[in-house]
Structures are given as structure tokens and as C-alpha cells.
Amino acid sequence: MSRGLWFAAGAGAGIYAMVRGRRAAEVLTYDGLHDRLGALAVGARLFRDEVAQGRAEAEDAVRARLRAPSPPQISSPPDTPELAPRQQRGTP
After folding, report:
1. FRET partner for 48 with CA separation of 20 to 30 A, picked from 7, 17, 30, 86?
2. Residue 38 DSSP label
3. How far apart (Å, rounded) are the C-alpha atoms in residues 47 and 57?
């Protein structure tokens, strides 16, 4: 029984090492690095959004505590009228 146990332990360690090696090799490929950098960018964007939301909530809480008026809302400029299409050259 001892030999069977050692065989199973060795096979399990070999499979574990093979899977870990394959994952490490995949990380170092172009696609693997691209995926990791993409995930990092998504994480940074989510973190930035969470910080902005927390900052806005804290600002609202401070304004409510101080009974300060809320800042004026900034509206976007009105749409500019579209320019008339250019006339073709040579036609009146």
C-alpha cells in the first residue's frame, strides 16, 4: 500500500507542476500579457469610478452638515447649427 500511496503522490505532484508550468508559459506570451494589461486597465478604471463616487458622496455629506448651497449645475453649450453644404465648383 505504501508504494501505491507514493505513486499517487508523485503523479499528483507531476500533474500540479505541469499545470503550473503551462499557466506560467501562457502568462509570458503576447496574448497573456495583453490580457493581463487589459485587466489592469479595467481594474484601474473601476477604482477611479469608485473613488469619484465616494468623493461625491462625501462632498454631499459635508455640504449637508455645513448647510452650504449646492454648486450650480454646468450645462453644455447649445448645439451649433449645421453648416450649409458647399456648392460644387463650376455651378452657379
Report:
1. 30
2. H
3. 15
Q: Identify residue 29 by its one-letter amino acid code.
A: T
**What string of DSSP letters covers 27-90?**
HTSHHHHHHHHHHHHHHHHHHHHHHHHHHHHHHHHHHHHHTPPPPPPPPPPPPPPPPPPPPPTT
Name the DSSP class of 22.
H
**Amino acid (one-letter) located at 5:** L
One-letter amino acid of 27: V
Collect the ranges in the chain with pLDDT lower than 70.
Answer: 1, 79-92
pTM of the model: 0.52
Q: Measured between alpha carbons, how far apart are the two ends of the chain, in Å?
A: 102
Residues 6 and 4: their CA atoms lie apart, in Å, by 5
